[in-house]
Design a protein that fits this description.
Blueprint: H1 4-14, H2 25-48, H3 55-61, H4 66-74, E1 75-82, E2 85-93, H5 94-98, H6 100-108, H7 111-116, E3 128-134, E4 139-144
Length: 145
């Protein structure tokens, strides 16, 4: 009446396999309701998910071209902070990131940097007090007043 799965669950739940089990009809009804509830939940979840593409399709679709791989190997992400707040991230060549002067020229040539180095109330250009480089240009913090 209840099926093999419900019976197995009932036996394992009620007593360890090495002990003697006294059969109780009220407990197996609860186990049957639990299996039905679990089955409904699995059907609901599986109906809401789209078909997952095969792994081979994903690897072909997400593969990089040779040019993208070369670009990735020679660039790095740099986080740009002005007055301690992260303002933007940019990709820069690794040789520029390792040279502080080249990095400084690159960063101050960007419109994003110029925008943040102007006082919003007066419109005056802020004076750069200090520049902090962390990890070969991975993080650049500009202190301006």
């Amino acid at each position: 009446m209840y099926g093999a799965d419900v019976t197995r669950l009932y036996i394992l739940y009620k007593a360890p396999p090495q002990d003697v089990l006294e059969y109780d009809t009220t407990s197996i009804i609860g186990m049957h309701r639990w299996v039905l509830k679990l089955s409904r939940m699995v059907e609901l979840v599986s109906s809401r998910f789209r078909r997952v593409p095969e792994a081979e399709d994903l690897s072909k679709r997400d593969s990089w071209t040779k040019e993208e791989k070369r670009t990735y190997l020679v660039t790095q992400k740099a986080i740009k902070k002005i007055n301690g707040k992260m303002r933007f991230k940019l990709d820069i060549p690794k040789d520029v990131a390792s040279d502080e002067n080249a990095l400084k020229d690159t960063i101050f040539g960007l419109e994003q940097t110029k925008k943040w180095l102007v006082d919003r109330t007066s419109g005056n250009k802020l004076e750069i007090k200090k520049m902090i480089y962390v990890g070969d240009g991975k993080l650049v913090n500009v202190i301006a007043k």
